From TrEMBL:
<dbReference type="InterPro" id="IPR013783">
    <property type="entry name" value="Ig-like_fold"/>
</dbReference>
<dbReference type="Pfam" id="PF00331">
    <property type="entry name" value="Glyco_hydro_10"/>
</dbReference>
<dbReference type="GO" id="GO:0030247">
    <property type="term" value="F:polysaccharide binding"/>
</dbReference>
<dbReference type="InterPro" id="IPR012291">
    <property type="entry name" value="CBM2_carb-bd_dom_sf"/>
</dbReference>
<dbReference type="Pfam" id="PF05345">
    <property type="entry name" value="He_PIG"/>
</dbReference>
<dbReference type="InterPro" id="IPR017853">
    <property type="entry name" value="GH"/>
</dbReference>
<dbReference type="GO" id="GO:0016020">
    <property type="term" value="C:membrane"/>
</dbReference>
<dbReference type="InterPro" id="IPR001000">
    <property type="entry name" value="GH10_dom"/>
</dbReference>
<feature type="region of interest" description="Disordered">
    <location>
        <begin position="1"/>
        <end position="24"/>
    </location>
</feature>
<keyword id="KW-0472">Membrane</keyword>
<comment type="similarity">
    <text>Belongs to the glycosyl hydrolase 10 (cellulase F) family.</text>
</comment>
<keyword id="KW-0624">Polysaccharide degradation</keyword>
<feature type="domain" description="CBM2">
    <location>
        <begin position="670"/>
        <end position="778"/>
    </location>
</feature>
<dbReference type="GO" id="GO:0045493">
    <property type="term" value="P:xylan catabolic process"/>
</dbReference>
<feature type="region of interest" description="Disordered">
    <location>
        <begin position="368"/>
        <end position="388"/>
    </location>
</feature>
<keyword id="KW-0378">Hydrolase</keyword>
<dbReference type="GO" id="GO:0031176">
    <property type="term" value="F:endo-1,4-beta-xylanase activity"/>
</dbReference>
Length: 778
């Protein structure tokens, strides 16, 4: 069990202070022995009358019937207890080692590994036909003393060496790893432990740890695990934002572990919705350390409430396709960590002090037999999570529109045919044109003819905001196509939707859609045209009233291929709705300017709401460092970093309706005189029309850089679509990048880096000239 001494789940009483997690070493030993036959008979007796003989009688059988697992935490002390080991081996089909794979056990001295305790747990699991969940690789607690003496770079190297050594040893034997354990404080801030500090703060160490583990065992599912993230709140929001960022960066994160240490009657009602929003990112969501404690001695009322709680937890998992299973922490109440950590509490598992099944066992078995949503991914191995994009244009991956007389790039259908940009312009649907259909106003792609201008849906996640109605501007190639996707709201709830489109040659739309654009001819290979109409359709989806859109996951459609129907999406838009929805209008203050070190004159943002008696709440993105906005729309502060940023102000009312305004804020002067700096620009990947790059800034001077702004100009026609570990803005080919809070300071001799993804049409030449805070770099 791995929870820190911080505040517990918000429903829990204050937790007694302690150092580290409850270490199972030295806890009480075996109690009275009962046979597995007696346990199984008791389990059967708890099932419904005449169904007992036909229904599963073990947790593993019940879970496997739903294509899930039901696991348990096992320690070496349990292997010497015949009763405990028999229950662990017969009732469960997944094993998590309690302490045997933690850092202080595995690597007590730097570079000297001790795998014997972990091997014993793996051998036990193998002999009982159970899989193993590795626990854990990177955790602020239970670290050997030698780690505390390491410098930042030494700690980074030690972390990577430890992960590589341990994962390589157990390669092929571990279903999943809790790679990073408990990275957050309860307020949603990062724990500033040795790993956080070694990488200069922020989430960099988490991405590095997951990539290192993946390199050592590409088949293992890789998790981040934490407690108090089961319900929606600051900590779960922080975990969600971290997960979304890592997925967008291509980090091979496979899942999120919800520890789930509860008190009877206090399981959060938002558990399922909260887990679902992580699943919508393409991640597995697992209950990893379940127990449900109560005051002891246990009352009949609390035991019945525990039965209700545990059944509801199981049902929440079964309702989510990406929930692979549940693990109980400790085998029974007899060996539970709870009494030793929470005096006066206990009885937290499905088996009592005599290893007999409790009422909660019966309720869980009933829940397991009640049906489930089939899992969408296997419960072993790893899968690539879907890509997340800041907007639809960033996800464009197909050229559906070409120029007359230069049709070579066009390939809407896999056979080289495409829309004519001239014909679309004649139909009032040229680049950037407004098209209104199905009650929604869309903007046609502003892409140049012959460049990527639509997305072929294959589970991509598009970040969006809006209320009322969600509209798609779409078509299909090589026949009609359909697909189902998922809408995720800011409260974590989800909604499915189905898209259907007629073929782009057809003028009759599919049911539920409308003809939005009809051009008079198409382009063909060989710079030719054909007198055949090209048609684009629209489809609208009504969003849940009072909720604000967070993202849209596109359907899992087919790729473009000759003879295979494929969907194409040219635009997505939202509207406040035509049936009772409010419209919020934000008045932009115009472009703003300031000077480093000089307080700005307060800027009050103005907005109006079509609804009556509505209170607006204001938020902002892209404000210059040092400035902030109040909930009432007042921007104040003193700029700390020079540079130009794109600022977006959003006003939201109580119904979820929102409006925004965007403007530029330029800060001049100030900054840090850096002396000498060196910048390395490296393309990390390149494909037709797109690329990713990493930029490293080295402080080769003698003074620290406290807040940096990097400027450069692309020599080609590149456009940045999204960035990480820094914020970017672009005007023409000129790019400005500013530091994040966690990498703003660069000590003399130190480096920091950030990365981005971009598009290009014909020239992806790397820039060679850079400045940091106005000073030229080598």
């Amino acid at each position: 069990m791995d929870i820190d001494t911080g505040a517990p789940h918000r429903a829990n009483p204050p937790r007694p202070g302690r150092a580290g997690s409850p270490d199972r070493r030295g806890l009480r030993g075996a109690l009275a022995v009962v046979t597995v036959a007696a346990i199984t008979a008791a389990a059967g007796a708890l099932l419904l009358g005449g169904q007992a003989s036909a229904a599963p009688t073990t947790l593993r059988a019940g879970a496997e019937a739903d294509s899930r697992y039901f696991g348990v935490a096992v320690g070496q002390q349990d292997l010497g207890n015949g009763t405990a080991s028999n229950v662990a081996g017969s009732q469960f089909d997944m094993v998590t080692p309690q302490n045997e794979m933690k850092w202080d056990t595995v690597e007590p001295n730097n570079g000297q590994f001790n795998f014997s305790p972990g091997d014993a747990i793996v051998n036990f699991a193998t002999s009982h036909n159970e899989r193993v969940r590795g626990h854990n690789l990177v955790w602020h607690s239970q670290l050997p003393g030698w780690m505390s003496s390491l410098s930042g770079s030494q700690a980074k190297s030690a972390m990577e060496a430890h992960i590589t050594g341990e994962v390589s040893h157990f390669k092929g034997k571990i279903y999943a790893w809790d790679v990073v354990n408990e990275p957050f404080n309860d307020d949603g801030s990062f724990r500033q432990d040795v790993f956080y500090n070694a990488f200069g703060g922020g989430a960099q160490y988490i991405g590095d740890a997951i990539r290192t583990a993946h390199a050592a065992d590409p088949a293992a599912k890789l998790y981040i695990n934490d407690y108090n993230i089961e319900g929606q709140g600051a900590k779960s929001d922080a975990m969600y934002n971290l997960a979304k960022t890592l997925v967008a960066q291509g980090v091979p994160l496979g899942g999120i572990g919800f520890e789930s240490h509860f008190i009877v009657g206090q399981v959060p009602s938002s558990l399922q919705a909260n887990m679902q929003r992580f699943a919508a990112l393409g991640l597995d969501v697992a209950i990893t350390e379940l127990d449900d404690r109560m005051p002891t001695p246990a009352s009949s009322g609390n035991l019945q409430q525990q039965a209700t709680d545990d059944a509801n937890i199981v049902k929440a998992c079964l309702a989510i396709a990406q929930c692979p299973g549940i693990t109980q922490w400790n085998i029974s109440d007899a060996d539970s960590w709870i009494p030793g950590t929470f005096p006066g509490y206990g009885a937290a598992t499905l088996f009592d002090n005599n290893y007999q099944p409790k009422s909660a066992f019966n309720s869980v078995m009933t829940a397991l037999s009640s049906g489930s949503v089939p899992p969408t991914s296997p419960t072993s191995g790893s899968s690539s999570p879907p890509s997340t994009y800041a907007n639809l244009a960033a996800s464009f991956d197909n050229v559906g529109i070409s120029a007359d007389g230069n049709t070579a790039a066009g390939n809407l259908d896999g056979g080289g045919s495409s829309f004519s940009q001239t014909a679309l312009t004649n139909a009032h649907a040229g680049p950037g044109a407004q098209v209104t259909s199905s009650g929604v106003t869309f903007t046609m792609p502003a892409a140049a003819a012959g460049s990527n201008d639509n997305t072929v849906p294959q589970n991509q996640i598009i970040t969006m905001s809006g209320t009322g109605t969600l509209g798609f501007l779409l078509t299909s190639s090589y026949g009609p196509a359909t697909g189902t996707g998922t809408i995720t709201y800011t409260d974590g709830s989800t909604q499915s939707y189905t898209l259907s489109s007629a073929d782009w040659w057809a003028t009759t739309p599919a049911g539920g859609s409308a003809l939005a654009v009809s051009s008079t001819y198409q382009n063909r290979p060989g710079n030719t045209t054909a007198t055949q109409s090209g048609n684009i359709f629209s489809q609208a989806v009504t969003l849940t009233a009072g909720k604000t859109l967070a993202s849209v996951q596109l359907p899992a459609g087919s790729p473009v291929a000759s003879g295979t129907p494929a969907l194409h999406i040219f635009a997505i838009s939202t509207t406040a709705g035509t049936s009772g929805g409010n419209t919020v209008t934000v008045t932009g203050p115009g472009n703003q300017s300031g000077t480093v070190g000089t307080a700005i004159s307060a800027v009050q943002i103005q907005a109006t709401d079509s609804g009556t008696a509505q209170t607006l709440t204001y938020t902002a993105t892209g404000l210059p460092a040092g400035l902030s906005i109040s909930s009432t729309g007042l921007i104040t502060g003193t700029p700390t970093t020079a540079g130009s940023s794109t600022t977006t102000i959003t006003a939201t009312d109580a119904t979820g309706a929102a409006g925004s305004a965007t403007f530029t804020w330029t800060v001049t002067g100030g900054g840090t005189t850096t002396g000498v700096c060196h910048v390395t620009y490296a393309k990390t990947a390149e494909w037709a029309g797109g690329f990713t790059a990493n930029v490293t800034i080295a402080n080769t001077g003698t003074a620290a850089i406290n807040g940096w702004t990097l400027a450069f100009t692309f020599p080609g026609d590149q456009k940045i679509t999204n960035a990480w570990n820094g914020a970017t803005s672009q005007s023409g080919e000129a790019v400005t990048a500013t530091s994040a809070a966690y990498n703003a300071s660069i000590a003399p001799g130190a480096t920091t880096s950030f990365g981005f993804q971009g598009t290009f049409t014909s020239n992806d030449t790397a820039p060679t000239t850079f400045t940091v805070n106005g000073a030229a770099c080598s």
